[in-house]
Amino acid sequence: MQQFPSGTQTPSSYTAATSAIEIERLVVGKVSKRLLWFIFLLFVFSFLDRINIGFAGLTMMKDLGLTTTQFGLATTLFYVAYIACGIPSNIVLARIGARIWIGSIMIAWGLASTATMFATDANTLYILRVLVGISEAGFLPGMLLYMTLWFPPAYRARANALFMIAMPVTAALGSAVSGYILAMDGIWDLKGWQWLFMLEGLPSAILGLVVFFYLDDKPEDAKWLSAEDKAVLARSLQAQRKPSADQAGAAAIETAGGRSLFAELTSLTVIKFAVAYFCLVNTLAMVAVWAPLIVKSFSANASNTTVGLLAAIPQVVTIIAMIWWGRHSDRKQERRWHLVLPMLAAAAGWMFTAMSGNPSIQMLGVCMASAGSYTAMSIFWTTPDQALSLKAQVIGIAVINAMGNISSALNPLVVGWLKDATQSFKAGLIYSAVLMMVGVVIVLLLPIARRQKTAAAIRA
Protein backbone atom coordinates (compact mmCIF):
# COMPACT_ATOMS: atom_id res chain seq x y z
CA MET A 1 0.00 0.00 0.00
CA GLN A 2 1.45 3.37 -1.03
CA GLN A 3 2.47 5.50 1.96
CA PHE A 4 3.59 9.12 2.18
CA PRO A 5 7.16 9.57 0.88
CA SER A 6 10.01 9.27 3.30
CA GLY A 7 10.52 12.43 5.30
CA THR A 8 6.87 13.46 5.02
CA GLN A 9 4.88 13.31 8.22
CA THR A 10 1.68 11.32 8.02
CA PRO A 11 -1.20 13.67 8.91
CA SER A 12 -2.32 13.08 12.48
CA SER A 13 -5.99 13.09 11.52
CA TYR A 14 -5.51 9.89 9.49
CA THR A 15 -4.28 6.48 10.57
CA ALA A 16 -0.76 5.38 9.71
CA ALA A 17 -2.20 2.56 7.58
CA THR A 18 -4.12 4.91 5.32
CA SER A 19 -2.49 5.25 1.90
CA ALA A 20 -1.51 8.59 0.42
CA ILE A 21 -3.98 8.09 -2.43
CA GLU A 22 -6.82 7.35 -0.01
CA ILE A 23 -5.98 10.41 2.09
CA GLU A 24 -5.96 12.54 -1.05
CA ARG A 25 -9.36 11.17 -2.02
CA LEU A 26 -10.74 11.93 1.46
CA VAL A 27 -9.48 15.51 1.32
CA VAL A 28 -10.85 16.08 -2.20
CA GLY A 29 -14.12 14.58 -0.93
CA LYS A 30 -14.26 17.22 1.81
CA VAL A 31 -13.68 19.95 -0.74
CA SER A 32 -16.38 18.52 -3.01
CA LYS A 33 -18.97 18.32 -0.24
CA ARG A 34 -18.27 21.86 0.84
CA LEU A 35 -18.03 23.61 -2.53
CA LEU A 36 -19.66 21.71 -5.39
CA TRP A 37 -23.29 21.93 -4.29
CA PHE A 38 -22.94 25.66 -3.62
CA ILE A 39 -21.14 26.69 -6.81
CA PHE A 40 -23.58 24.42 -8.68
CA LEU A 41 -26.45 26.45 -7.20
CA LEU A 42 -24.76 29.71 -8.17
CA PHE A 43 -24.31 28.45 -11.73
CA VAL A 44 -27.98 27.43 -11.90
CA PHE A 45 -29.09 31.02 -11.41
CA SER A 46 -26.29 32.42 -13.55
CA PHE A 47 -27.31 30.22 -16.44
CA LEU A 48 -31.00 30.87 -15.82
CA ASP A 49 -30.40 34.60 -16.18
CA ARG A 50 -28.64 33.86 -19.47
CA ILE A 51 -31.23 31.58 -21.06
CA ASN A 52 -34.56 32.78 -19.68
CA ILE A 53 -34.85 35.21 -22.57
CA GLY A 54 -35.26 32.16 -24.84
CA PHE A 55 -38.42 31.19 -22.98
CA ALA A 56 -39.57 34.81 -22.63
CA GLY A 57 -39.32 35.06 -26.41
CA LEU A 58 -42.32 32.75 -26.81
CA THR A 59 -44.56 35.73 -25.90
CA MET A 60 -42.20 38.69 -25.51
CA MET A 61 -41.48 39.02 -29.24
CA LYS A 62 -45.15 39.57 -30.01
CA ASP A 63 -45.77 41.90 -27.05
CA LEU A 64 -42.80 44.14 -27.95
CA GLY A 65 -43.22 43.82 -31.72
CA LEU A 66 -39.79 42.24 -32.27
CA THR A 67 -38.62 40.37 -35.37
CA THR A 68 -36.57 37.21 -34.91
CA THR A 69 -33.46 39.14 -35.98
CA GLN A 70 -34.09 41.84 -33.35
CA PHE A 71 -34.65 39.20 -30.71
CA GLY A 72 -31.41 37.46 -31.69
CA LEU A 73 -29.56 40.80 -31.65
CA ALA A 74 -30.54 41.33 -28.00
CA THR A 75 -28.71 38.12 -27.09
CA THR A 76 -25.79 39.04 -29.35
CA LEU A 77 -25.38 42.37 -27.53
CA PHE A 78 -25.50 40.53 -24.21
CA TYR A 79 -22.53 38.44 -25.32
CA VAL A 80 -20.64 41.42 -26.75
CA ALA A 81 -20.74 42.99 -23.28
CA TYR A 82 -19.97 39.61 -21.72
CA ILE A 83 -16.90 39.15 -23.90
CA ALA A 84 -15.61 42.67 -23.34
CA CYS A 85 -15.76 42.36 -19.56
CA GLY A 86 -14.72 38.71 -19.07
CA ILE A 87 -10.93 39.19 -19.00
CA PRO A 88 -10.94 42.34 -16.82
CA SER A 89 -13.31 40.58 -14.44
CA ASN A 90 -10.95 37.60 -14.04
CA ILE A 91 -8.05 39.97 -13.34
CA VAL A 92 -10.08 41.66 -10.60
CA LEU A 93 -11.07 38.28 -9.14
CA ALA A 94 -7.43 37.20 -9.00
CA ARG A 95 -6.57 40.38 -7.10
CA ILE A 96 -9.41 40.66 -4.60
CA GLY A 97 -10.60 37.04 -4.38
CA ALA A 98 -13.69 35.09 -5.42
CA ARG A 99 -15.68 35.74 -2.25
CA ILE A 100 -15.99 39.51 -2.68
CA TRP A 101 -15.99 39.62 -6.48
CA ILE A 102 -18.40 36.77 -7.25
CA GLY A 103 -20.78 37.99 -4.54
CA SER A 104 -20.73 41.53 -5.93
CA ILE A 105 -21.34 40.61 -9.57
CA MET A 106 -24.15 38.22 -8.61
CA ILE A 107 -26.02 41.03 -6.88
CA ALA A 108 -25.44 43.27 -9.91
CA TRP A 109 -26.61 40.80 -12.56
CA GLY A 110 -29.58 39.66 -10.46
CA LEU A 111 -30.88 43.22 -10.31
CA ALA A 112 -30.10 43.85 -14.00
CA SER A 113 -31.85 40.65 -15.09
CA THR A 114 -34.90 41.51 -13.01
CA ALA A 115 -34.98 44.97 -14.60
CA THR A 116 -35.46 43.33 -18.03
CA MET A 117 -39.13 43.08 -17.09
CA PHE A 118 -39.34 46.82 -17.77
CA ALA A 119 -38.31 46.54 -21.44
CA THR A 120 -40.74 48.37 -23.72
CA ASP A 121 -39.20 47.96 -27.17
CA ALA A 122 -36.12 46.63 -28.96
CA ASN A 123 -33.84 49.48 -27.81
CA THR A 124 -34.65 49.21 -24.10
CA LEU A 125 -34.25 45.43 -24.34
CA TYR A 126 -30.82 45.91 -25.91
CA ILE A 127 -29.70 48.23 -23.10
CA LEU A 128 -30.91 45.94 -20.33
CA ARG A 129 -29.33 42.83 -21.83
CA VAL A 130 -26.01 44.68 -22.16
CA LEU A 131 -26.17 45.50 -18.44
CA VAL A 132 -26.75 41.81 -17.63
CA GLY A 133 -23.81 40.85 -19.86
CA ILE A 134 -21.45 43.33 -18.21
CA SER A 135 -22.29 42.19 -14.69
CA GLU A 136 -22.40 38.44 -15.39
CA ALA A 137 -19.21 38.32 -17.50
CA GLY A 138 -16.86 37.25 -14.72
CA PHE A 139 -18.81 34.35 -13.28
CA LEU A 140 -17.99 31.34 -15.48
CA PRO A 141 -14.31 32.11 -16.21
CA GLY A 142 -13.94 33.08 -12.56
CA MET A 143 -15.40 29.81 -11.35
CA LEU A 144 -13.27 27.79 -13.78
CA LEU A 145 -10.19 29.54 -12.42
CA TYR A 146 -11.44 29.07 -8.85
CA MET A 147 -11.82 25.31 -9.33
CA THR A 148 -8.18 24.96 -10.42
CA LEU A 149 -7.24 26.17 -6.92
CA TRP A 150 -9.24 23.43 -5.20
CA PHE A 151 -9.41 20.32 -7.43
CA PRO A 152 -6.31 18.40 -8.64
CA PRO A 153 -6.41 17.61 -12.41
CA ALA A 154 -7.03 13.88 -11.82
CA TYR A 155 -10.40 14.76 -10.28
CA ARG A 156 -11.21 17.70 -12.52
CA ALA A 157 -13.50 16.02 -15.12
CA ARG A 158 -15.85 14.79 -12.39
CA ALA A 159 -15.77 18.13 -10.60
CA ASN A 160 -16.38 20.02 -13.86
CA ALA A 161 -19.25 17.71 -14.78
CA LEU A 162 -20.92 18.09 -11.38
CA PHE A 163 -20.50 21.86 -11.62
CA MET A 164 -21.55 22.19 -15.25
CA ILE A 165 -24.61 19.97 -15.07
CA ALA A 166 -26.09 23.18 -13.67
CA MET A 167 -26.61 24.15 -17.32
CA PRO A 168 -28.80 21.20 -18.39
CA VAL A 169 -30.44 21.09 -14.95
CA THR A 170 -31.30 24.77 -15.30
CA ALA A 171 -32.49 24.31 -18.86
CA ALA A 172 -34.66 21.35 -17.80
CA LEU A 173 -36.16 23.09 -14.78
CA GLY A 174 -36.34 26.39 -16.62
CA SER A 175 -38.12 24.72 -19.53
CA ALA A 176 -40.71 23.17 -17.25
CA VAL A 177 -41.17 26.07 -14.83
CA SER A 178 -40.98 28.90 -17.36
CA GLY A 179 -43.99 27.57 -19.24
CA TYR A 180 -46.05 27.82 -16.07
CA ILE A 181 -44.66 31.27 -15.22
CA LEU A 182 -45.65 32.52 -18.69
CA ALA A 183 -49.16 31.34 -17.85
CA MET A 184 -49.23 33.96 -15.04
CA ASP A 185 -49.92 36.53 -17.76
CA GLY A 186 -52.28 39.21 -16.47
CA ILE A 187 -51.68 38.76 -12.74
CA TRP A 188 -51.09 42.19 -11.16
CA ASP A 189 -51.29 43.56 -14.71
CA LEU A 190 -47.90 42.01 -15.55
CA LYS A 191 -47.15 40.01 -18.68
CA GLY A 192 -46.03 36.41 -18.26
CA TRP A 193 -42.53 37.24 -19.50
CA GLN A 194 -42.29 40.06 -16.93
CA TRP A 195 -43.03 37.58 -14.15
CA LEU A 196 -40.36 35.34 -15.69
CA PHE A 197 -37.58 37.92 -15.40
CA MET A 198 -38.61 38.94 -11.88
CA LEU A 199 -38.96 35.46 -10.38
CA GLU A 200 -35.81 34.12 -12.04
CA GLY A 201 -33.64 37.22 -11.53
CA LEU A 202 -34.03 38.22 -7.88
CA PRO A 203 -32.66 34.93 -6.42
CA SER A 204 -29.23 35.72 -7.95
CA ALA A 205 -29.01 38.95 -5.97
CA ILE A 206 -29.96 37.12 -2.76
CA LEU A 207 -27.35 34.41 -3.37
CA GLY A 208 -24.74 37.09 -3.96
CA LEU A 209 -25.13 38.12 -0.32
CA VAL A 210 -24.69 34.49 0.80
CA VAL A 211 -21.42 34.20 -1.17
CA PHE A 212 -19.80 36.80 1.10
CA PHE A 213 -20.20 34.48 4.07
CA TYR A 214 -19.78 31.02 2.51
CA LEU A 215 -16.94 31.01 -0.04
CA ASP A 216 -13.22 30.97 0.81
CA ASP A 217 -10.80 32.46 -1.70
CA LYS A 218 -8.27 29.60 -1.50
CA PRO A 219 -7.62 26.41 0.52
CA GLU A 220 -5.27 28.25 2.91
CA ASP A 221 -8.22 30.39 4.06
CA ALA A 222 -10.59 27.48 4.69
CA LYS A 223 -11.34 27.04 8.40
CA TRP A 224 -13.18 23.80 7.58
CA LEU A 225 -9.92 22.16 6.40
CA SER A 226 -7.30 21.08 8.92
CA ALA A 227 -3.65 22.05 8.48
CA GLU A 228 -2.98 18.45 7.44
CA ASP A 229 -5.76 18.58 4.85
CA LYS A 230 -4.36 21.79 3.40
CA ALA A 231 -0.89 20.25 3.14
CA VAL A 232 -2.24 17.17 1.33
CA LEU A 233 -4.24 19.30 -1.09
CA ALA A 234 -1.32 21.66 -1.79
CA ARG A 235 1.02 18.70 -2.46
CA SER A 236 -1.51 17.05 -4.77
CA LEU A 237 -2.20 20.22 -6.73
CA GLN A 238 1.49 20.92 -7.19
CA ALA A 239 2.42 17.34 -8.15
CA GLN A 240 -0.36 16.88 -10.69
CA ARG A 241 0.40 20.14 -12.46
CA LYS A 242 3.60 18.57 -13.77
CA PRO A 243 2.98 16.18 -16.72
CA SER A 244 5.23 13.14 -16.89
CA ALA A 245 7.96 13.16 -19.53
CA ASP A 246 6.44 10.40 -21.64
CA GLN A 247 3.02 11.97 -22.06
CA ALA A 248 1.94 12.56 -25.63
CA GLY A 249 2.22 16.19 -26.56
CA ALA A 250 4.08 17.15 -23.39
CA ALA A 251 6.72 19.07 -25.31
CA ALA A 252 4.04 21.07 -27.09
CA ILE A 253 2.27 22.22 -23.93
CA GLU A 254 5.33 22.81 -21.76
CA THR A 255 6.00 26.48 -21.10
CA ALA A 256 9.57 27.60 -21.60
CA GLY A 257 11.13 29.19 -18.56
CA GLY A 258 11.87 32.52 -20.25
CA ARG A 259 8.71 32.74 -22.27
CA SER A 260 6.77 35.98 -21.87
CA LEU A 261 3.15 36.03 -20.78
CA PHE A 262 2.10 37.64 -24.08
CA ALA A 263 3.95 35.01 -26.13
CA GLU A 264 2.30 32.22 -24.17
CA LEU A 265 -1.20 33.64 -24.55
CA THR A 266 -0.75 34.16 -28.31
CA SER A 267 0.89 30.79 -28.98
CA LEU A 268 -0.53 28.44 -31.61
CA THR A 269 -1.60 26.04 -28.86
CA VAL A 270 -3.75 28.62 -27.07
CA ILE A 271 -5.22 29.77 -30.38
CA LYS A 272 -6.20 26.17 -31.19
CA PHE A 273 -7.91 25.80 -27.82
CA ALA A 274 -9.77 29.07 -28.38
CA VAL A 275 -10.94 28.15 -31.89
CA ALA A 276 -12.04 24.68 -30.78
CA TYR A 277 -14.05 26.25 -27.96
CA PHE A 278 -15.57 28.75 -30.40
CA CYS A 279 -16.93 25.86 -32.48
CA LEU A 280 -18.19 23.97 -29.44
CA VAL A 281 -19.92 26.94 -27.82
CA ASN A 282 -21.94 27.65 -30.96
CA THR A 283 -23.95 24.51 -30.25
CA LEU A 284 -24.23 25.37 -26.55
CA ALA A 285 -25.72 28.72 -27.57
CA MET A 286 -28.00 26.98 -30.07
CA VAL A 287 -29.40 24.79 -27.30
CA ALA A 288 -29.62 27.58 -24.72
CA VAL A 289 -31.27 30.23 -26.91
CA TRP A 290 -33.19 28.42 -29.61
CA ALA A 291 -34.21 25.02 -28.17
CA PRO A 292 -37.71 26.16 -27.07
CA LEU A 293 -38.40 27.71 -30.47
CA ILE A 294 -36.91 24.71 -32.33
CA VAL A 295 -39.14 22.35 -30.36
CA LYS A 296 -42.08 24.66 -31.04
CA SER A 297 -41.29 24.49 -34.78
CA PHE A 298 -41.94 20.74 -34.91
CA SER A 299 -44.68 20.83 -32.24
CA ALA A 300 -46.73 23.60 -33.80
CA ASN A 301 -50.00 22.78 -32.04
CA ALA A 302 -48.49 22.42 -28.58
CA SER A 303 -49.15 25.00 -25.85
CA ASN A 304 -46.28 26.96 -24.30
CA THR A 305 -46.53 24.78 -21.19
CA THR A 306 -46.23 21.61 -23.29
CA VAL A 307 -43.31 23.09 -25.26
CA GLY A 308 -41.58 23.81 -21.97
CA LEU A 309 -42.01 20.23 -20.80
CA LEU A 310 -40.82 18.83 -24.15
CA ALA A 311 -37.78 21.13 -24.10
CA ALA A 312 -36.85 19.66 -20.71
CA ILE A 313 -36.38 16.14 -22.14
CA PRO A 314 -32.99 16.80 -23.85
CA GLN A 315 -31.70 18.34 -20.63
CA VAL A 316 -32.55 15.26 -18.57
CA VAL A 317 -30.62 13.13 -21.08
CA THR A 318 -27.75 15.63 -20.86
CA ILE A 319 -27.51 15.44 -17.07
CA ILE A 320 -27.14 11.64 -17.14
CA ALA A 321 -24.59 11.80 -19.98
CA MET A 322 -22.42 14.44 -18.30
CA ILE A 323 -22.10 12.60 -15.00
CA TRP A 324 -21.38 9.21 -16.60
CA TRP A 325 -18.96 10.51 -19.26
CA GLY A 326 -17.01 12.71 -16.86
CA ARG A 327 -16.52 9.79 -14.49
CA HIS A 328 -15.48 7.56 -17.39
CA SER A 329 -12.92 10.11 -18.58
CA ASP A 330 -11.36 10.37 -15.12
CA ARG A 331 -11.24 6.60 -14.78
CA LYS A 332 -9.42 6.24 -18.10
CA GLN A 333 -7.43 9.47 -17.58
CA GLU A 334 -8.07 10.17 -21.27
CA ARG A 335 -9.40 13.48 -22.61
CA ARG A 336 -9.02 13.76 -26.40
CA TRP A 337 -11.48 11.05 -27.50
CA HIS A 338 -13.76 11.78 -24.58
CA LEU A 339 -14.00 15.26 -26.11
CA VAL A 340 -14.22 14.27 -29.78
CA LEU A 341 -16.94 11.61 -29.50
CA PRO A 342 -19.61 13.79 -27.87
CA MET A 343 -18.82 16.58 -30.35
CA LEU A 344 -19.47 14.15 -33.20
CA ALA A 345 -22.74 13.10 -31.53
CA ALA A 346 -23.81 16.74 -31.29
CA ALA A 347 -23.06 17.38 -34.98
CA ALA A 348 -25.05 14.29 -35.96
CA GLY A 349 -27.91 15.42 -33.72
CA TRP A 350 -28.30 18.75 -35.50
CA MET A 351 -28.29 17.00 -38.88
CA PHE A 352 -31.03 14.61 -37.70
CA THR A 353 -33.10 17.58 -36.54
CA ALA A 354 -32.54 19.49 -39.78
CA MET A 355 -33.10 16.69 -42.29
CA SER A 356 -35.89 14.62 -40.74
CA GLY A 357 -39.57 15.45 -40.91
CA ASN A 358 -40.39 13.05 -38.09
CA PRO A 359 -40.89 14.88 -34.76
CA SER A 360 -39.56 11.88 -32.81
CA ILE A 361 -36.31 11.84 -34.82
CA GLN A 362 -36.04 15.60 -34.49
CA MET A 363 -36.41 15.33 -30.72
CA LEU A 364 -33.74 12.61 -30.69
CA GLY A 365 -31.49 14.97 -32.62
CA VAL A 366 -31.98 17.79 -30.09
CA CYS A 367 -31.20 15.31 -27.29
CA MET A 368 -27.97 14.24 -29.04
CA ALA A 369 -26.93 17.84 -29.68
CA SER A 370 -27.58 18.91 -26.10
CA ALA A 371 -25.99 15.89 -24.42
CA GLY A 372 -23.01 15.89 -26.79
CA SER A 373 -22.17 19.58 -26.52
CA TYR A 374 -22.53 19.94 -22.75
CA THR A 375 -20.66 16.71 -22.08
CA ALA A 376 -17.86 17.86 -24.40
CA MET A 377 -17.64 21.18 -22.57
CA SER A 378 -17.10 19.54 -19.18
CA ILE A 379 -14.22 17.50 -20.67
CA PHE A 380 -12.83 20.47 -22.59
CA TRP A 381 -12.19 22.46 -19.41
CA THR A 382 -9.93 19.74 -18.00
CA THR A 383 -7.34 20.51 -20.70
CA PRO A 384 -6.41 24.22 -21.19
CA ASP A 385 -4.80 24.70 -17.76
CA GLN A 386 -2.25 22.05 -18.77
CA ALA A 387 -1.24 24.28 -21.70
CA LEU A 388 -0.72 27.36 -19.57
CA SER A 389 1.72 28.30 -16.85
CA LEU A 390 0.25 29.33 -13.50
CA LYS A 391 0.88 33.01 -14.24
CA ALA A 392 -1.00 32.73 -17.57
CA GLN A 393 -4.04 30.84 -16.30
CA VAL A 394 -5.85 33.91 -14.96
CA ILE A 395 -5.94 35.59 -18.37
CA GLY A 396 -5.61 32.45 -20.54
CA ILE A 397 -8.78 30.78 -19.28
CA ALA A 398 -10.63 34.07 -19.74
CA VAL A 399 -9.23 34.45 -23.29
CA ILE A 400 -10.41 30.97 -24.31
CA ASN A 401 -13.78 31.54 -22.64
CA ALA A 402 -14.07 34.91 -24.41
CA MET A 403 -13.52 33.24 -27.78
CA GLY A 404 -16.35 30.88 -26.98
CA ASN A 405 -18.54 33.79 -26.05
CA ILE A 406 -17.88 35.40 -29.42
CA SER A 407 -19.55 32.30 -30.82
CA SER A 408 -22.42 32.75 -28.34
CA ALA A 409 -22.78 36.32 -29.56
CA LEU A 410 -22.78 35.38 -33.25
CA ASN A 411 -25.10 32.38 -33.01
CA PRO A 412 -28.33 34.23 -32.14
CA LEU A 413 -27.69 36.82 -34.83
CA VAL A 414 -26.74 34.32 -37.55
CA VAL A 415 -29.48 31.80 -36.73
CA GLY A 416 -32.09 34.57 -36.30
CA TRP A 417 -31.17 36.01 -39.72
CA LEU A 418 -31.23 32.54 -41.35
CA LYS A 419 -34.63 31.86 -39.78
CA ASP A 420 -36.08 35.14 -41.06
CA ALA A 421 -34.55 34.57 -44.52
CA THR A 422 -35.71 30.95 -44.95
CA GLN A 423 -38.70 30.76 -42.57
CA SER A 424 -37.11 27.61 -41.12
CA PHE A 425 -34.48 26.59 -38.58
CA LYS A 426 -32.99 24.07 -41.06
CA ALA A 427 -30.20 26.35 -42.33
CA GLY A 428 -29.23 27.32 -38.78
CA LEU A 429 -29.10 23.68 -37.70
CA ILE A 430 -26.84 22.73 -40.62
CA TYR A 431 -24.61 25.75 -39.84
CA SER A 432 -24.21 24.47 -36.26
CA ALA A 433 -23.46 20.91 -37.40
CA VAL A 434 -20.75 22.07 -39.82
CA LEU A 435 -19.13 24.34 -37.24
CA MET A 436 -19.03 21.48 -34.74
CA MET A 437 -17.24 19.28 -37.27
CA VAL A 438 -14.64 22.02 -37.74
CA GLY A 439 -14.20 21.93 -33.96
CA VAL A 440 -13.61 18.18 -34.07
CA VAL A 441 -10.77 18.65 -36.56
CA ILE A 442 -9.16 21.30 -34.32
CA VAL A 443 -9.45 19.09 -31.22
CA LEU A 444 -7.64 16.29 -33.06
CA LEU A 445 -4.74 18.72 -33.56
CA LEU A 446 -4.60 19.87 -29.92
CA PRO A 447 -1.65 18.81 -27.75
CA ILE A 448 -3.83 17.07 -25.17
CA ALA A 449 -1.66 14.89 -22.94
CA ARG A 450 -2.85 11.57 -21.61
CA ARG A 451 -2.02 11.17 -17.95
CA GLN A 452 -0.77 7.96 -16.44
CA LYS A 453 -3.45 6.12 -14.50
CA THR A 454 -3.30 6.42 -10.77
CA ALA A 455 -5.03 4.47 -8.05
CA ALA A 456 -7.38 7.42 -7.65
CA ALA A 457 -8.31 7.26 -11.31
CA ILE A 458 -8.82 3.50 -11.30
CA ARG A 459 -11.21 3.80 -8.34
CA ALA A 460 -13.16 6.64 -9.96
TrEMBL record:
One MF term in the entry's GO annotations: transmembrane transporter activity
Keywords, in A-Z order: Membrane, Transmembrane, Transmembrane helix, Transport
Topological type in the membrane: Multi-pass membrane protein
Subcellular location: Membrane
TM spans (from-to): 35-59, 71-93, 100-120, 126-149, 161-183, 195-215, 274-295, 307-325, 337-355, 361-382, 394-417, 429-449
UniProt-listed SUPFAM superfamilies: MFS general substrate transporter
GO cellular component, as recorded: plasma membrane
PROSITE patterns, per database record: MFS
InterPro entries: MFS, MFS_dom, MFS_trans_sf
Domain Major facilitator superfamily (MFS) profile: 35-451
Protein name: MFS transporter
Species this chain originates from: Noviherbaspirillum sedimenti
